[in-house]
Amino acid sequence: MDFSVNLGLLKLKTPLMLASGTWGLGENLDKFFSLKEIRENIGALVTKGISIN
How far is CA 33 from the centre of its chain? Predict the structure, then answer.
């Protein structure tokens, strides 16, 4: 099945997005998902903020 969605000009494989803080620093992801599963099933990671510094 194709679950892809478009958000403006951005196309995501799936509408599933991990929100900031829900997975800590990301260290726990490998306990539940393989890297392949993450790449295939998670459309985006939402950050709290981004800084150059």
Answer: 12
